[in-house]
Amino acid sequence: MMKQTACKYRQNYTQARGVSLVAVLFILIVLGGLAAVMAQMGATQHVGYLLSQEGKQAYYAARSGLEWGRHQVITQNDCFNDAQTEEAGFQIHLSCQASLVFEGNESLNIYHLNASAAKSTPFGEIQREAEATIWSPVP
Asked: Which of 18, 53, 132, 136 gives 20 to 30 Å between its CA and that of 89?
């Protein structure tokens, strides 16, 4: 009787070896999928950070164009023609609109300046705008 029990045990052991192989393959597939998802998340986060930095650069490019426009208005006491330039890979477009306002017995020139900076990237277009208003008494 003992021989039959040992033989049965040995048969079950032989059949049970394939179960561990299936379990190992399952774990490897799950861990491989998890690694792929984590790699994709890291790449997405990196691209988001790069786009954020490009956005900051676009904002400062627009501000620099706005400062140039402010200088032109103050020194000439008049609006400049719409201007377009390229700086550090950004296309900067500047515009100025003037209006005359009467307040009591005083008249004021109001200049509305608008600057926009744009740049194309492989992930889309980055664009930022800056605006300013200058009040100046009419000489």
From this structure: 132
Spatial CB neighbours of 24, under 8 Å, sequence gap ≥ 6: none
CA distance 134 to 96: 10
Which residue do the tokens 């300013």 mark?
132
Indicate the domain borders of the chain. 2-137
Residues 6+ apart with CB under 8 A from 87: 61, 64, 65, 117
Over the stretch 102-135, which tens digit does the pLDDT of each residue have?
A: 888 888 899 999 999 999 988 888 999 999 999 8
Asked whether the beta carbons of 52 and 116 are under 8 A apart, the reply is: no
Q: How many C-beta neighbours within 10 Å does residue 73 have?
A: 20
Q: In terms of DSSP H, where are the helices of 1-139? A: 2-76
Place of tokens 């998340």: 41
